[in-house]
Amino acid sequence: MIYWRVTRIRLRMFQVCILLTLFISMMGIFRALNTQITLIDDSIEDQGQLHVHVIRSGAAVKDCAEPQTQEEARIEVGHAAAEQLHSVTQELIEIKRLLRGAAPIHRLEAALYRVNRIAEELRIGDLSSLIQTELEHPTPSVKTSPEKVDVCPDTFKGSTYGYPFFYTGWVRTNCTNAKPLESVVTIIMNFMYEDNNVNVVSILRNISRLYPTVEVHVAADLKLPKDLAGNGNFTVHGDLAGETNAEIWYKLLLKVKTPYVLVTRGITRFTWDAQLEQMIHSVSSFPVDFVGSAFRTNDGRWNMGCQQSLLRNFTLSYRDGYDASIHECIYCDSLRGPFLARTSVLKHYKFPSNYRHFVFEDVFLQVKELGKHHVVSCPDSMFFVKDYDALLREKINFVPIASTWGINRLHLAEGIEHVFSCSEANTPCRKVKGVAVSPCCLQTLADAVKFLMRTCEEEHIYCELQEGTMLGAVKLGKVLPWERDADITFLSGNYSAFKELRPKFEHEGYKFVDLGQQWCCVDNRTAGGKFQIGVEGWTIEMYGQHLMDSEMMVERGQQPTKVLFDGMWVNVPTNPGLFARNRYGHEIYKHAQHWMTLGYESGWAKYDTSGFSPCPQTGHHGCLDQYSTDGNLQFEGRELL
């Protein structure tokens, strides 16, 4: 069970709001700088004395008791504005990193370039350098001092140097200050549950040939042949048999004493394509903590090994690709193949013991949630790995991750989708203020509404969606994520016919309550009548109505109006958009929480779009306050902003 940590959450809409706020702050600084200089010009007294009473935008309030020249005043105000500009720029850079790949990122970069030009004009050298470093990623300088480096850097020899096969082009320098490789990296390998098609001995022999001094820890039911047994750098941990994969990986990690560890998950061969030295150079030279690689399967399919992920509203989605790069590497949320990590950083994360597969998918979700460590893939490094397609298609392999993170839907980059029940995902049907109801729970209500509406149509009973249920259908095409019940009207004249359906509902597991309450009359018609249909914590309130739009449409020879509700076309009032506007008033396409949640006396209370309630579990992917109170696309569950 994950204990949700308070983190800086990378939630796109929230960050865009922050971004707008910061831009407004910057505009305030520029206006303030101009205002302050104007005030200074106007405040020169007869003897050259200056009284600066207010410095806006956070600068200190000051009353100069001593005479001060105009130039001194300009310098003082300039320093104050520069400090504010520097602070805002640092915030913009941090948000740029968090918004990586979001739609406004190019505009933010353009704004930083503009700030850079201002910094250059104002001769704020350190600020200009800060921005250039962030935007242009200058090549790490080669250290020529005696200071030790993890590996020697490489240098590019030109575009024709490796012609025609380009096995080379970047050449590692022969520096004299590199540490011994065995003091820098350790390799861990887990073959405990691999099939016999993986030649573990061949893999170990290749490692011994390429990196003879590097320490290797192997989990396998294996006895080393003589040529490898004599290599004291290889340790086989056969005693880990019976442990889960998560436990095996964690115990192997505890054996590592070097600053970096190569996690060779899923490999079938080990060749010079691994480019281990370059992986080490990347992690030690760039501001990153995990360096992944490309991979190819045994049938030749190549992949750059980089995925972006989105965990939002009980849905986890993956997409292959990248939206930002640093030198010859690309930023990722999750790595698919083998990877190199800072040992101390990897040890910081949990390895849930019940995981048999996809251990590191959980680890990278933790990395993204915490938001402190950076992940890249450098596709010039490549490993040969097994094909995971069969494992990806088995839903049971993902149940542990669904249970740990409360995931009802999983969309894999391969186009595979898995849906988990509330019990599998450990997401009981709770209705908490400030938190969306889990999709599996909402589906229970949606299925009940569809069963009821289908039954009404089959039995020729007039029924229509009403209140928030209809509003959800109009705005989202489904149940509102913050719903508390469902509302449906039926024709009062069909009261007896609907009452006769009790056995059908009870046979399907629904609770059927007849509350009566019919009365006479409206327009010479019987009115009223009420039923309640209950299922797994939900109630559908059914109210009798003496006259209904659907009935009138049929009498005119027309089909009743239908809206798409969770994949089914169901009856609603003739003009549902007009009905909703007249029912709820202003700003109906913005979102308002259920009146019960807000503590109002009835559903007739004012439609309140002021914002979602604060989330009691800060950082949880089900929090409503991560969303804008406007727009329906944000609730689709698969969007990667």
From TrEMBL:
One of the GO BP terms on file: glycoprotein metabolic process
Domain of life: Eukaryota
Pfam families in the cross-refs: LicD
Annotated LicD/FKTN/FKRP nucleotidyltransferase domain residues: 456-504
Family: Belongs to the LicD transferase family.
Alphabetical list of PANTHER family matching this protein: FUKUTIN RELATED PROTEIN, RIBITOL-5-PHOSPHATE TRANSFERASE
Protein's name in the database: Ribitol-5-phosphate transferase
Source species of the chain: Branchiostoma lanceolatum (Common lancelet)
